[in-house]
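Thread title: Can someone regenerate the structure for this chain?

I was given the following input by a collaborator and told the matching structure tokens would be attached. They weren't. Posting the sequence so someone can regenerate them.
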Amino acid sequence: MNRTGYPISQTNGPRKFGPPPDWKGATPKGAEVFVGKIPRDVYEDELVPLFSRHGRIYEMRLMMDFNGNNRGYAFVVFTCKKDAQNAVRMLNNYEVRRGKNIGVCPSVDNCRLFVGGIPKTVVRDQILTEMQKITEGVQNVIVYPSANDKSKNRGFAFVEYDSHRSAAMARRKLLRQIPQPFTLWGHTIAVDWAEPELEVDEDIMQQVKVLYVRNLHIDTQESTIAEVFQNIAPVERVKKI
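Best answer:
Regenerated them for you:
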């Protein structure tokens, strides 16, 4: 702490190192790695310098037991995604102690919950208001219109939070209402993790030249599609199937 100026705190298990004292803005997205097989007597004084070699650390959460030993795993958030990828490449299977190799892999930084069973007449702003009342860290709500009636939703929504921790705490809070089910607008509401968005490597994305578009109206012409997408990037051709 004296060397880096980072704060360190512990709440109900994880001991948190960070964020940087000069950090401004939101928690970095897609820049978290999971660290497993940590020897139980290895702590931040060894882990922080090790991971700092491969990028600037935003935050480290070392899971702790009540006896003072760590639980054998931690999460490290870097200030950018590229540093996280570098840490995985360089430190996975790294021998942190003689005969003790740690495992490092990308962490699923899921900040989105699936909320089902919503009345189809409820609009996005109503869902946003209610979820902000009962959970913390809500950033956005995504609602898809019904294919048959654009004034109605499809009976579900995705709620986005400012961090994975906020989403996890919200999910825990809502599921703890069992056996009294979570209800809104007189309907029983289902809550679970949304499927995480797939992260595609930037080098691969630069090679992708075909974009699939769905939910088009049957009468939409290829020329209309081309005109819309031409405003974003050059279009070679459009084929409607």
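The first strand starts at residue 8 and ends at 10.
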